[in-house]
Design goal:
Chain A: It holds the Pfam family BPD_transp_1. The structure holds two protein chains of two kinds. By secondary structure, chain A is mainly α. Chain A is about 75% helix and about 0% strand. Chain A is flat. Chain B contains 20 helices and twelve strands. Classes of the chains: A mainly alpha, B alpha/beta.
Chain lengths: ~350, ~450
C-alpha cells in the first residue's frame, strides 16, 4: 500500500511542480503588456491559470485517485466490516477489527519482528555496506568483478532467491547441511528455518545477503560525488586514510546514507516475499511480519475485515515513520537552507 | 504557441476523459455488493453452460472434455469447459464469487464442502439441489452428509476419500515388519515406529510447515476419541468442553515425544518437491506418511520416472484402547459439484450426468478419485487405492478434515495451535482453547 503512495507521489510530483510553473511565467509575461481594464483582465487570467493547472494536473490526479486513494478508501471501508469475501458488505462492526488485530499476539509478534528487521537491517548493512564500498572505491585488481558479485543478489528476483535459499537450507538434504557435515559442524535438527529460535535470524541473514548489494552500489555512487580536491587537500595536510574517511567521506556521504536508510526502513516494514517463500511466517509464527499476517488473514482465513484493518495499521505505521523521518532527518538534505541547519552553523 | 497549446489541451482533455471512463468501468464491475440480477444471466443463454474443474492434465482432462462433448450430443446444450490447476481454480472461483456477477460465476463448479460451502450458501450463490437432483442424491446418499446444510443438499459429491498411512513396503520389510495390520492399534503402530528406528529408517514424514498435514493427526485423534455425535453436537453448540478433545491432544503429545518424524519437519512442505513430506515418501527416505487418497497421484509426480511407486501400501489410522469413537469411523473428504443460483436448469442436468453410472465408471477406471456412485466402485484400477473402499464403506461415519469443516476462520487458529504441539510446546488444552476462542468470535 505504501508502495503505491510512493509511486503515486513520484507520478504526481512532476505534474504538480511543472504544472503551475508554465502558466505562471506566461501570465506574468502577459501582465507586462498594456494595462487595459487591468482588474478584470487579471481576474480572467487568474481563472484561466487555475483552469489550466486543473487541466494539466487532472490525468495525474485521476490515476492517483484510481490506484492510491480508492484502494485505501476501500481498505478502510472493508476494515469496518466482518466480511468473508463473498456477498455484500453488511456486517458492520466499526472499529472492532482494529481492536482484535491490536490485541492479537500474532500481529504484535509480527510487528516486533518487523521492528527487529528494521533495526538489524540498518545496524548490519550500514557499516558492512559502507566498509565494502570504501574498499571497492580504491583502485584494485578485479574491482569490476567484485562489484558485480556483490550486486548480483539484488538483481535476482526475490522469489527466485527465496526458493534457492530454501533448497539450500533444507535439513539433511540441503547444501548448507552438506557443507556443515563435511566440516563436522553440528546443525539444528529442525533446520535453520524450522528452529523457532533461529528462524528469524536465518531470514535476516538471507535479507542481508540480498540487499547488501544495493547499499554498496548506492554508497559507491555517493562516493563518486565527493570532490577529488578535498582528498588532495587532506593528503597535503598529512591526514591518514582513516582520518580522511572519517572527516571527509562519511560526512559528505550523509545524504546518500540517510536516503538509503529511509528506503531500507520502508522496505523492512513491508517485507513479505522473502519471508513468505522461506518460512511462510513459521515455524509457529516466529518469522511472521505484518505483511505475512495480513495475507494469511485475507487469503487463507477469509477474514478480509481483519486483513484490511491490519493493512490500514501497517499503512499508518509506515506513513508516520516516513513522515517523521522526512521531517527530522531527511529535511536537512531536501531543505538545506532551513533555520534548523542555519542555527546549527 | 497558443495554437499548439490548445492542441495539447484537447489531447490532455481526451486522455482525462478516457481515464475517467476507464476508472468508472473498473469500479463498476468490482462492486462487492454483488447486486446484479441473477435472472438476466439465467435466461441469457440456456444453450450454453460453464463448467470449472481441476483435472487440467493428461487423461483426466481428456476424459472430462469427452464427458462434456457426450452431454452436448445428448442434450444439445454446449458445455464450456475450463480446466484449471487446483490453486488457480480456487483463486479464480473466490474472485468470481466475490464479484457477485452472474456472468462471471461458473454454472457448475467444484466444492470441498464444510465452512466454504456454508459461506456460499449464506451468501446465496449456490443452488439447493435437494429436490431437483433427488434421484442422484438417493444413489450417493452415504456421502451427501458433508454437503447438507439445514437438511438441504447443496452439492453432489463425486469423489470421497480417506486419510490413512501410506507406507513403504520395502522399508517396512527391511525393518522386519512382516505383517502390517490394515487397521492397527496404537501399540502395533508404535511398534512399527520402534522397529523402523532400530533399523535406522526415519519412521514418518510430516509437512508441518504447511500446518494442515500436522493437524490431520489431531483431527484423527478426535475421530478416535470422540463419538461422531459428540463432535457434531460440539460444532453445532460451539462448545468444545468435552474431555475427549483434550484426550486427542494428549495422544498427539505422546506421538511427538516419540520423535518419529523427519528432520526439520516444522518447516517441511506437504507436497512441494522431493524434500517435501510426500517427496520423502516417494523417494524412499521415510517409512510412512499420513495422507489422503490423493497420495498415489502426488507421489507419482515426485518420482524420477513419474510413476506411482510400486512399494506403496496403505493402512488405516491406529485405534486407541478404550477409545470413545467408533473404530469404523474415519476421516476423509471429497470433491463435489455445486450449481450456481444464476445457472440455467441445464446445469443441474449436467451435474447429475457427472454422477451417472457411466461417467463415474470412466472416472474410476482412470483413478481420478474414489467414486461415490456404488455402481463405479469396482472400476478402480489401482490396487492400493482399492484398499480404501472397504474401509470407507464399512458403515462408519466419515468426518471431514476439521479445518475445512469448520471453515478457515476457525480452522487456521486451530492448526496454528496444533503446530505448537509439534514444536514441542505444551498444548492439549491450548488446542481446545484456540478452537473454542475462534468459534466464540465467529
Amino acid at each position: 500500500m505504501t508502495d503505491d503512495v510512493t509511486t503515486a507521489a513520484v507520478a504526481a510530483s512532476p505534474a504538480t511542480s511543472s504544472g503551475p510553473a508554465g502558466p505562471a511565467t506566461r501570465a506574468s509575461a502577459r501582465g507586462a503588456g498594456p494595462a487595459l481594464g487591468g482588474r478584470r483582465r487579471s481576474g480572467a487570467a487568474a481563472w484561466r491559470k487555475r483552469a489550466e493547472i486543473t487541466f494539466f494536473v487532472a490525468p495525474a490526479l485521476v490515476l492517483f485517485f484510481m490506484f492510491v486513494v480508492w484502494p485505501i478508501v476501500t481498505a478502510v471501508q472493508i476494515s469496518m466490516f466482518k466480511w468473508k469475501g463473498i456477498g455484500p458488505l453488511v456486517d458492520f462492526v466499526g472499529l472492532q477489527n482494529y481492536v482484535s488485530v491490536l490485541k492479537n499476539t500474532l500481529f504484535t509478534d509480527a510487528l516486533t519482528h518487523n521492528l527487529i528487521i528494521v533495526v538489524v537491517s540498518i545496524a548490519v548493512q550500514l557499516p558492512l555496506g559502507l566498509g565494502i564500498a570504501l574498499l571497492l572505491n580504491r583502485k584494485m585488481w578485479g574491482q569490476g568483478l567484485l562489484r558485480t558479485l556483490i550486486f548480483v543478489p539484488y538483481v535476482l528476483s526475490e522469489v527466485v532467491a527465496g526458493v534457492v535459499w530454501r533448497q539450500l537450507l533444507v535439513p539433511d538434504y540441503g547444501g548448507i547441511d552438506a557443507i556443515a557435515r563435511a566440516l563436522h559442524i553440528p546443525t539444528p535438527q529442525q533446520g535453520f528455518l524450522g528452529t523457532p529460535d533461529i528462524a528469524l535470524w536465518t531470514v535476516l541473514f538471507v535479507l542481508t545477503w540480498k540487499y547488501l548489494g544495493l547499499a554498496v552500489i548506492l554508497f559507491l555512487a555517493g562516493l563518486q560525488g565527493v570532490p577529488e580536491d578535498l582528498y588532495e587537500a587532506a593528503q597535503l595536510d598529512g591526514a591518514s586514510w582513516w582520518q580522511v574517511q572519517r572527516k571527509i567521506t562519511v560526512p559528505l556521504l550523509g545524504p546518500t546514507l540517510r536516503t538509503w536508510a529511509f528506503l531500507s526502513m520502508i522496505g523492512s516494514l513491508q517485507v513479505f516475499d522473502m519471508v513468505w517463500i522461506l518460512t511462510g511466517g513459521g515455524p509457529v509464527g516466529r518469522t511472521s511480519t505484518m505483511a505475512t499476517f495480513l495475507i494469511y488473514q485475507g487469503t487463507k482465513s477469509q477474514a478480509f475485515g481483519i486483513a484490511s484493518a491490519a493493512s490500514v495499521i501497517l499503512f499508518v505505521i509506515a506513513l508516520v515513520l516516513a513522515v517523521l523521518y522526512q521531517q527530522l532527518i531527511l529535511r536537512r538534505d531536501t531543505h538545506p537552507d532551513q533555520p534548523r541547519r542555519k542555527a546549527k552553523r | 504557441m497558443t495554437r499548439k497549446m490548445r492542441g495539447g489541451a484537447i489531447l490532455a482533455l481526451s486522455a482525462t476523459i478516457a481515464l475517467l471512463a476507464a476508472g468508472c468501468a473498473g469500479s463498476g464491475s468490482d462492486n462487492p455488493g454483488g447486486g446484479g440480477s441473477p435472472t438476466a444471466a439465467a435466461n441469457a443463454d440456456a444453450k450454453t453452460i460453464t463448467w470449472w474443474h481441476n483435472s487440467n492434465t493428461g487423461e483426466g482432462k481428456d476424459y472430462y472434455d469427452k464427458v462434456a462433448k457426450d452431454f452436448e450430443a445428448q442434450t444439445g446444450v454446449h458445455v464450456e469447459v475450463s480446466a484449471m490447476q487446483h490453486e488457480d481454480m480456487l483463486t479464480k472461483l473466490s474472485a468470481a464469487l466475490q464479484s457477485g456477477d452472474p456472468d462471471q460465476i461458473p454454472d457448475v463448479f467444484m466444492s470441498r464442502g464444510g465452512g466454504e460451502l456454508k459461506n456460499e450458501v449464506d451468501s446465496g450463490v449456490t443452488r439447493d439441489l435437494t429436490d431437483v437432483a433427488a434421484d442422484t442424491i438417493s444413489k450417493i446418499s452415504a456421502f451427501t452428509g458433508q454437503y447438507t446444510i439445514d437438511g438441504k443438499v447443496y452439492a453432489l459429491p463425486f469423489s470421497m476419500g480417506l486419510v490413512g498411512f501410506w507406507y513403504n513396503k520395502d522399508l517396512f520389510a527391511q525393518a522386519g515388519i512382516t505383517d502390517v495390520n490394515p487397521a492397527p492399534t496404537i501399540d502395533e503402530f508404535n511398534g512399527y515406529i520402534d522397529k523402523l528406528k532400530a533399523a535406522g529408517i526415519t519412521p514418518a514424514s510430516v509437512g508441518a510447515g504447511d500446518k494442515w498435514p500436522a493437524a490431520h493427526y489431531w483431527y484423527y485423534n478426535v475421530v478416535r476419541e470422540c463419538p461422531f455425535d459428540t463432535v457434531e453436537k460440539a460444532i453445532a453448540d460451539k462448545d468444545y468442553s468435552d474431555p475427549c478433545f483434550v484426550k486427542a491432544g494428549d495422544h498427539l503429545e505422546d506421538l511427538v515425544a516419540k520423535q518419529p518424524f523427519n528432520d526439520g519437519f516444522l518447516s517441511t512442505k506437504a507436497q512441494e518437491g522431493p524434500t517435501s513430506a510426500s517427496g520423502l515418501l516417494a523417494t524412499g527416505k521415510v517409512g510412512m506418511e499420513l495422507a489422503g487418497h490423493w497420495e498415489p497421484g502426488v507421489t507419482g509426480g515426485l518420482t524420477a520416472d513419474g510413476k506411482v511407486p510400486s512399494f506403496l501400501g496403505w493402512f488405516a489410522y491406529p485405534t486407541f484402547p478404550g477409545q470413545g469413537g467408533d473404530p469404523k469411523d474415519q476421516m476423509g473428504g471429497g470433491d463435489a459439484w455445486e450449481v450456481s443460483t444464476s445457472a440455467p436448469d441445464a446445469a443441474v442436468d449436467f451435474a447429475k450426468y457427472l454422477l451417472s453410472d457411466e461417467v463415474q465408471k470412466g472416472f474410476a477406471e482412470l483413478d481420478m478419485g474414489l467414486p461415490t456412485n456404488p455402481a463405479a466402485t469396482d472400476s478402480i484400477s489401482n490396487e492400493t487405492l482399492k484398499q480404501l473402499i472397504p474401509v470407507r464403506d464399512a458403515g462408519g461415519n466419515t468426518q471431514l478434515y476439521l479445518d475445512t469443516r469448520l471453515g478457515s476462520a476457525i480452522g487456521n487458529p486451530l492448526n496454528d495451535a496444533i503446530q505448537q504441539v509439534f514444536a514441542g510446546n505444551p498444548g492439549p488444552q491450548e488446542i481446545v482453547d484456540a478452537l473454542q476462542n475462534a468459534a466464540d468470535s465467529e
